[in-house]
Amino acid sequence: MAKKIRLTVVTVCFNAEKTISAAIKSVLSQGFNDFEYIIKDGASKDNTLSIVSKYGKKIAKVISGQDKGLYDAMNIAVKKAKGEYIYFLNADDALKDKHVFEKVTSFLDSENDLVFGDIEFFYPEENSYVRVSRKASIEELKKGNMPPHQGSFVKRSLLLAHPFNTKYRSSADFDFFCRVLASERKVKKIGEIIAIMTMGGISSGKVSYKETEAIIKQYFGFLAFLKILLKHKLFSLTKRFLLLVGIKLHKG
To answer: pLDDT tens for residues 150-202?
Structure first.
């Protein structure tokens, strides 16, 4: 009888030769090692796959091939996974330290649908870190706040039943949480920093705002949409003004 795997760790990558090694090392250095590790590569044109190959059998599966983007790649990896829970770590992010999985695995007890903790935003230009703590509730989702996927361990059965909507470029994870938290789920928040997320790119910009606004309108109505729209407008205006006077504002 095959051994039951409690956790699958997934890193999705494409042309990530500059960052993939640090992400992999943060996973393989964990004190708790009873997990499988899957790399889903989108047919990288750089040295990403040659770097991945250096880790050999320490990575359970390397899936390389064309996909339709980040969320399609995540869906593909979920289907190939064997773990009861899935954890996604982006190719340019890293686990906080080598004790993360030890702290989390006791809560992956089949009863919890979602286990999540905090993350740190890393701003490379300033070499600064900001701790981000979120809640998992409908009220927080209406404000545009979700459990960070870099801090979340989700039951594979939920991800299979509610795959990421690939029409979104940046906010399919937000859409996922809106769907799964709409019904009663057992959620466990732990007071640990799970991962360090490097800020920048599409998730930090206008695309993310527009998609989040549309998702909130779809699930929570026009009033919630207006509130988040005004929140985003105010944040953008404040950020623009502060940049003019030489102050950077971080969205936590």
So the answer is: 999 999 999 999 999 999 999 999 999 999 998 889 999 999 999 999 886 54
Class of domain 7-243: alpha beta
pTM for this model (two decimals): 0.91
Rounded distance between C-alpha atoms, residue 222 and residue 239, angstroms: 25
139-178: b or e for each residue (b if 16 or more CB lie within 10 Å)?
Answer: eebbebbbbbbbbbbbbbebbeeebbbbebebbbbbbbbb
What is the residue whose two structure tokens read 């989700």? 154
For residue 70 the two structure tokens come to: 């980040």
The residue to which tokens 């950077």 are assigned: 248
Q: Please give the DSSP secondary-structure letter assigned to residue 183.
A: S
Which residues are CB-contacts of 26 (< 8 A; sequence separation ≥ 6)? 89, 94, 95, 98
CA distance 102 to 95: 12
| Distance between CA atoms of residues 236 and 249, nearest Å | 10
In degrees, to the nearest 5, what angle opens at C-alpha 10 toward C-alphas 207 and 99? 110
